[in-house]
Amino acid sequence: MSSESAASSLSITTTPSDHPASPERLAEILADPGFGLHFTDHMLVAEWTPDAGWHDVRVEAYGPLTLDPAAAVLHYAQEVFEGMKAYRHADGSVHTFRPDQNAERMVRSCRRLALPELPVPDFVEAVDALVRTDERWVPDASEGEKSLYLRPFMFASEAFLGVRPAQHVTFMVIASPAGAYFKGGVKPVSIWLTEEYTRAGRGGMGAAKTGGNYASSLVAQQEAMAHGCDQVVFLDASEGRYVEELGGMNLYFVHRDGRIVTPATGTILEGITRDSIITLAEKSGHPVEERRFSIEEWKDGVASGEITEVFACGTAAVVTPVGELRWEGGSLPSPVAGEGPDASVGAALRQQLVDVQFGRAADEHGWLHRVV
Ligand SMILES: *Cc1c(COP(=O)(O)O)cnc(C)c1O
């Protein structure tokens, strides 16, 4: 993998926290971590200026930032982020999953947001440095599917209210132990089809992983919840016809003949889970079509029985079955899947994926990156 052949040129200093969580407190947190609630003892911070490039890279005690109120990110949302996980295997080793893909996606997001690029090997090394420092926060392999969620992010920290790309940028990595993303386990999520709001238009930021896309999705998510649904699905901005994705997860439509269709529009965020699922599906004999997929095709397919399953995927929740679809004045029931233990294609692919991530199945594609 490119990430492992090229060396990082970062020099990282580490200052251990003088108030790490006690073993008792850590055990208490890891017993029931929830999602995004608790943070590890340390964080990684790096600064960028046009003259010095990336510098002052350090692992230090986790804590609040001192940010000038004029910091550009607070006003103009010049920000990108990533989401990935570290998994502990039964032999105690710790691995991340395709970190070079997160690094490359952050480079693409940075280009769109006019932020400086962090080279792929430096991104991987920065994440590794934090995981190594906070290794005791990576939950045990025996603990179901718990992992350490990693959140690299970059933002405009320059204090300046003029509108232009910031001349002082900060990159950080924080980490948070994660249990099940959806409380109550893997049960189908109900989906609200928003016909009022869109997520991204042509030439916009849809393909970049940036907070602005999430900010604009919140009111639609509120609308979904007001209608008793768990998640919202967006259609394309120009015709209001083609299915894009959920607020933070990509979608798959399983057909009666085993084919799987997943939307490709140029305005969705192409997930690393999405790409991994495509590879695993094709290997399991499910041809995958990446193409535009209209909302009529969804409604008609479920109504006729041509679509037997819909599922969504992303790093945080892995694979989640999609149940009922509702919209203003109408609804569509859950697709009717076949019978038997192997009936759910999504559940089978989910199992294959987590087995690789947790070291229980052979890593045939070189997806794992050993950190500890
Ligand atoms: C991060 C993200 C996804 C999922 O990507 P993964 O790499 O699979 O975690 C899907 N949609 C949006 C909008 C996202 O931000």
Low-confidence stretches: none
Tell me about the largest β-sheet.
Answer: 9 strands, mixed
What characteristic shape results from the CA principal axes?
Answer: globular
Molecules bound to protein: pyridoxal-5'-phosphate
Brief account:
With 372 residues, the protein is α+β, with helices and mostly antiparallel strands.
Q: Can you put this structure into words, describing what you see?
A:
The chain has 372 residues and is an alpha+beta fold. It folds into two domains: 3-180, Aminotransferase class 4, branched-chain amino acid transferase, N-terminal domain (D-amino Acid Aminotransferase, Chain A, domain 1, 2-Layer Sandwich), CATH 3.30.470; 189-357, D-amino Acid Aminotransferase, subunit A, domain 2 (D-amino Acid Aminotransferase, Chain A, domain 2). Helices cover 26% and strands 28% of the residues. It is built from nine helices and 18 strands. It has helices at 2-5, 23-31, 72-76, 99-112, 120-133, 211-226, 272-283, 295-304, 345-357, and strands at 12-14, 42-49, 53-61, 79-81, 84-88, 94-97, 147-156, 169-178, 189-193, 231-235, 243-246, 250-255, 260-263, 288-291, 307-314, 318-327, 330-332, 368-370. β10 (231-235) and β11 form a beta hairpin. The longest helix is centred in the middle third of the chain and has 16 residues, at 211-226. Pyridoxal-5'-phosphate is lined by residues 83, 209, 213, 245, 248-250, 269, 271-274, 314-315.
